[in-house]
Write a structure and sequence with these properties.
The protein is mainly alpha-helical. The protein contains five helices and four strands. The protein has two domains: 82 residues, no CATH class; 35 residues, no CATH class. Helix 3 crosses helix 4. The relative contact order is 0.06.
């Protein structure tokens, strides 16, 4: 992010919740965890704190708080992933589909290329497809 933007963000104070239920947010969360329906939470707030709200108001408040918590968690996860992300691979080699059709073409990193079979395990005949030599002949340099 640009340094000018970072400086501006440092000067702006975060907005506090504008809901009148904000001071009771933790209580509402705990009551929901206990399984109380919104209607009972509304009646408890009316009885104990003389706060008259409807069940839909509490529902909307809980939904907005949950959405905000998810957004903060997602941002923290994204920032952590960016901080610890390894360098991207330089390139990919695409494997062709085998003649049997059982293997889809899949990307394979350049580093995995070195794990493949040594070159002398193959027999090259320009008139035929490239094939593996039988195990006994591998590496012997024999050509058919």
């Amino acid at each position: 992010m640009d340094e000018k933007f970072k400086e501006l963000l440092k000067t702006v104070m975060p907005q506090t919740g504008r809901s009148r239920l904000e001071p009771y947010g933790e209580l509402i969360d705990e009551l929901r965890l206990l399984g109380l329906p919104y209607r009972e939470i509304a009646s408890l707030l009316t009885e104990k704190y003389e706060l008259h709200v409807t069940k839909s108001t509490i529902h909307d408040f809980v939904r907005v708080r949950l959405r905000r918590q998810k957004k903060v968690a997602k941002r923290a996860t994204k920032e952590a992933a960016q901080a610890t992300a390894p360098a991207p691979a330089r390139g990919f080699i695409w494997l062709a589909q085998s003649s049997s059709g059982t293997r889809d073409a899949q990307p394979r990193s350049v580093n995995e290329k070195s794990k493949s079979a040594p070159i002398d395990d193959f027999h090259y005949d320009p008139t035929k497809p490239l094939t593996l030599l039988p195990q006994g002949n591998a590496g012997s340099g024999n050509t058919e």
